[in-house]
Amino acid sequence: MSFPLLNLWRIAKLEASKEWDAPVSDSAKGAWYLELLARHIRLSTYIFLALFYHYTFDMEWAVTLTPGWIAWVFARNYLVMGVMYGGWHWVLFDSPYAEGMKTRKFDPKLPSDEQMNRDRLYTTLGFTQSSVWEVAMLHAWASQSPWVKPYYANFWAFPIWSIFQVLLIAYWRDGHFYWIHRFMHPWKTKILPDVGQFMYDKVHSLHHKSYITAPWSGLAMHPVEHFIYYTCTLLPMVWSLHPFHFWMNKIHADISPLPGHDGHDAPAGGSFFHHIHHAKYEFNYGTPMVPFDKLFGTYQDGSKWEKGVAAKKTE
Q1: Least confident of 77-86, 100-109, 234-243
Q2: pLDDT score recorded for residue 43
Q3: Residue 7: which residues within 8 A CB-CB, separation 6 or more?
Q4: 240 and 233 Cβ atoms separated by less than 8 Å
Q5: How far apart are the first and last CA of the chain?
Q6: C-beta separation of 304 from 271 below 8 A
Q7: Model's pTM, two decimal places?
Q8: Would you say 258 and 215 are in contact if contact means Cβ atoms under 8 Å apart?
Q9: How remote is the C-alpha of 296 from its chain's centroid?
Q10: Residue 68 and residue 148: Cα distance in Å, rounded?
């Protein structure tokens, strides 16, 4: 489970050496390839949590909608939220390492209490909706709903397909994220109605109220955006999967916004790529893992602005 354990180990090493000002990576210079590597290593976290979910649930429970297993789904998700989001926030802002980690912040300012409370509220609403999606999918599978393809219980019954799906999930997730995210930013079209501007004004602008991102900012979205965001979990409507694949996909959606928005360079999340998006809005809609930004001309490494982007957009 590379994140956050590997990151925490590196932070502890910095604290022991008192070399907080020493450069640790080139991420602040737009080295997207380092973040790409980190994102691959981070997959171990999602695999670990998906195994935890798999081995603490019996699909037979979900044949009928009963309060017991539904409560377990919600409780398990809230537990993961508290440990991952709450724990990482504590490490970066309240732990003995917090003072040193200030030197790693992309923006030296701290989020306001108002933002922190708003982020916690909407992230909790996000995990609530994630739990609803999970309950719906598990029940659909277990009750053999015609809306989904049948799941298979033995992961190794189809080894090539199963492994391929594990490898595909991160790329599917990041590609899906690019398109739904780009959809909610202005299209700047003259012939067609600018649906993107409407979606930004009414929905996505809530997420961008977190100008100075912090761990709880990642999933702090409008409920409509949560709904669009979690459509990534609908692959079982297209082809047969093992439940592990669904859980890994959903957990990736639950957890990956955390290191991407923690607002700190390595050895924390180190996502300068997405920090630029929150600072300048019109760039870096996706991730380095699926380079649609480079393909469509919306990639920026931060060098365009002489004073960097740490001070946020003021013009």
Answers
A1: 100-109
A2: 85
A3: 259, 266, 267, 268, 269
A4: no
A5: 41
A6: no
A7: 0.91
A8: yes
A9: 22
A10: 23
Q: Exposed, middle or buried by CB within 10 Å (0-12, 13-18, 19+), for 256?
A: buried
Cis peptide before 243 (omega within 30 of 0): no
Neighbouring CB atoms inside 10 A of 217's CB total 30
pLDDT tens by residue, 132-143? 999 999 999 999
The first and second tokens of residue 173, run together, are 């997730």
Q: Is 38 exposed, middle or buried (0-12, 13-18, 19+ CB in 10 A)?
A: buried
Q: Residue 77 is which amino acid?
A: N
Give pLDDT tens digits for 195-214: 999 999 999 999 999 989 99
CA-based torsion, 8, 10, 15, 16: positive or negative:
positive
- 3-state DSSP assignment of residue 3: helix
Which residues sit opposite 287 in a β-bridge?
A: 290
| Residue 175 · residue 188 · CB < 8 Å | no
Q: Scan for tokens 């909610």, then name that residue.
A: 184
Q: Which two tokens stand for residue 313?
A: 């957009």
Upper half-sphere CA count for residue 301 (Cβ side, 13 Å): 12
DSSP state of 267: T
Cβ-based burial of 206 (10 A; exposed 0-12, middle 13-18, buried ≥19): middle
Contact 102, 203 (CB under 8 A): no
Q: Would you state the structure tokens that stand for residue 59, as one six-digit string?
A: 């699909």
Q: Which long-range contacts (CB under 8 A, 24 or more apart) does 163-172 make?
A: 165/241, 165/242, 165/245, 166/47, 166/244, 166/245, 166/248, 169/46, 169/245, 169/248, 169/249, 169/252, 170/39, 170/40, 170/43, 170/46, 170/252, 170/289, 171/289, 171/290, 172/232, 172/235, 172/249
Which residue bears the tokens 């360079």? 265
Strand-pair partners of 105: 264
Helices and strands, number each (H, E), in the chain: 14, 0
Please tell me the distance from the alpha carbon of residue 177 to that of residue 297, in angstroms, as a whole number. 17
189: tokens are 């079209």
